[in-house]
Amino acid sequence: MKHLLTLRETSEADMRYLLDTATAFREILSRPVKKVPTLRGRAMITCFYENSTRTRTSFEMAAKIMSAEAINIAVAQSSVAKGESLKDTMLTLQALKADCIIIRHPASGAAQFAAEHLGIPIVNAGDGRHEHPTQGLLDMLTIRQEKNEIEGLTVAIVGDIMHSRVARSNIWGLTKLGATVRLIGPRTLLPHDAEQLPVQIFDDLRAGLDGADVVNVLRLQTERMEKGLLPSLREYSRLFGVTAGSLKAAKPDVLVLHPGPMNRGVEISADVADGKGGIRSAIETQVSNGVAVRMAVLYLLMSAQGASAHEL
Ligand code: CP
């Protein structure tokens, strides 16, 4: 693996390696002193053309825990604001001797474009509506941690599938590891190629949740949405909002995920988000696992090949 651009193109073996490595790294996060020398002398640069709390911060933490330099480009204050192109920006960061670039961009394919023009590892931290592979991996790590195995599970992804790069990474990652994936949402919020994806499709929430082991609730991405896709937020919430009541259709021990940020009271009720009343919400575990997964990704792409994570 030279880059991490999509889970569609990542082999099952590489995904299992990353998940096993992240599992080993979780122990480092529970140490009083969270520091290992593994990536000393290496430099990671994050370049986010869209806002982020979880992804950018966890990449920075992952690099620092592994003793790498972590540099963030504040895109709005950078020469991008003077019109510098994506290609020239990437070439500049490479010339500054970055060992790895983490990029988030509103255009699908931006990370692939960067990878084609650079000789250093590129990690896609979300490109348009396309993929968000490290989110897919941390979701899988959380499911494996909570349910022991992914193979044989039914995972329901609910909500704004059309605009979700998280959904696509989940679909490719989970199906490669043997899960059945259902997409649940209004037809207007399904991607145009939904019928070609390896999924089952439902436009009724309770039917889609019937017997599900895991429900991954997606944010309504109103910032990417054209007008007319939804009658109203109230109507959407009534039909597709995940609540304690709608979860009764799923298995009693259903695991609830959400990639964040959440619109509480729209796609997910506050009691479900907070795991009240015996509901198994793993939303905070997902965030913690994001650091371990990004450590594993940086380790794989930036360290000398062949070392074992278990030696750290
Ligand atoms: N899940 C996710 O990508 O969150 P951020 O936008 O906060 O990084």
Search tags:
four-stranded parallel β-sheet; alpha/beta; 36% helix; Rossmann fold; binds phosphoric acid mono(formamide)ester; 10 strands; six-stranded parallel β-sheet; 312 residues; 2 domains; 14% strand
Task: Report on this structure.
There is one protein chain. This protein is of the alpha/beta class and 312 residues long. It has two domains: 12-132 and 288-311, Rossmann fold (3-Layer(aba) Sandwich), CATH 3.40.50; 133-284, Aspartate/ornithine carbamoyltransferase (Rossmann fold), CATH 3.40.50.1370. Helices cover 36% and strands 14% of the residues. The chain is built from ten helices and ten strands. It has helices at 12-29, 54-65, 86-95, 110-117, 133-147, 165-176, 205-209, 233-240, 270-273, 283-302; strands at 43-48, 69-73, 100-105, 122-127, 154-158, 180-184, 200-202, 214-217, 255-257, 280-281. It has a six-stranded parallel β-sheet with strand order 7-6-5-8-9-10. The protein has a four-stranded parallel β-sheet with strand order 2-1-3-4, with helices on both faces. It starts with 11 loop residues before the first helix and ends in a 10-residue tail after the last helix. The mean pLDDT is 95. Phosphoric acid mono(formamide)ester (CP) binds next to helix 2. The site of phosphoric acid mono(formamide)ester has 9 residues, from helix 2.
CATH class assignment of the largest domain: Alpha Beta
Helical percent range? 25-40%
Bulk shape: globular
| Count of separate DSSP helical elements | 10
Low-confidence stretches: none
In CATH, the architecture of the largest domain is 3-Layer(aba) Sandwich
- What's the N-to-C terminus distance? 21 Å
Radius of gyration: 19 Å
- Structural class, from helix and strand content? alpha/beta
Tell me which ligands are bound: phosphoric acid mono(formamide)ester
Query: How many separate structural domains?
Result: 2
Say what the CATH topology of the largest domain is: Rossmann fold
